[in-house]
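Troubleshooting: if your tokenizer reports a length mismatch, compare your output against this known-good record of 301 residues.
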Amino acid sequence: MVGSALVREAEKRGVYTLLTAPRSELNLLSQTAVAEYLAEHKPDQVIIAAAKVGGIHANSTYPAEFIYENLAIATNLIEASRQAGVERVLFLGSSCIYPKLAPQPMPEDCLLTSPLELTNEAYAVAKIAGLKMCQHYRAQYGLMYHSAMPTNLYGPGDNYHPENSHVIPALIRRFHEAKERGDKDVTIWGTGTPSREFLHTDDLAAACFHLMDLEDPPDWANVGVGKDLTILSLAELVAKTVGFQGEILTDPSKPDGTPRKLLDISAIKQTGWSPQVDFAEGLAAAYQDFLSTLTQGTARL
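Known-good structure output:
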């Protein structure tokens, strides 16, 4: 999802020769394969958008895979980029790197000040490692390696797996299928009270290229929208977007995760970037993309 948004943004700008490597062509978990690929193609810039991602269920169920695969992707690409003479690297982290009880909104300097949320600790540790690698490579080698910390993302090309997807695609699929079956209600995980913010992938892509254009970017910068809503409010908005008219129930026996995750985006806004996609419009477009991929048989289910 993020990779395709970056490609769209690069093509819109029209000044880049793009190198993209599908999983069938390049195994990012292989140190040798990554080193050989970068040595052969010698790009001058690399954006590390690849990751093993998922929602609260996937993070809680597969922590070993989440920490190993994300650590491997980060360490392989950052070190191989250095060896290949890559001039600039942007590593994409996640808002879950910040402490469970971080101040709200979360500034960049609250990193590592208190414990992480346990349900996504494995993923967060891997992302913190990638961020710190870029910071230390920049300090020791003088390389312009830096990071962007996006909030929760949504947009075209999302993953709609019933167990391993993030909250917006999961809700889109569940409400759509409930509407198709004529269900009277849909139950969401947890109490519905945690708050989250959501950023369209096109806004993230624009932010990434904006940061790559800066002469002296911060070591890492939050990328979000600066406002949030509760999971229950989100569910109500998704239900309205999809056209589901039944009741929305909560299941407090399921975990809520971090109570609130709102990014402080003042640092990147001071450099001249701000989000542009209206959430309601972006959500409607995401649902239409889901319907289109269902019809075409290309939905990631």
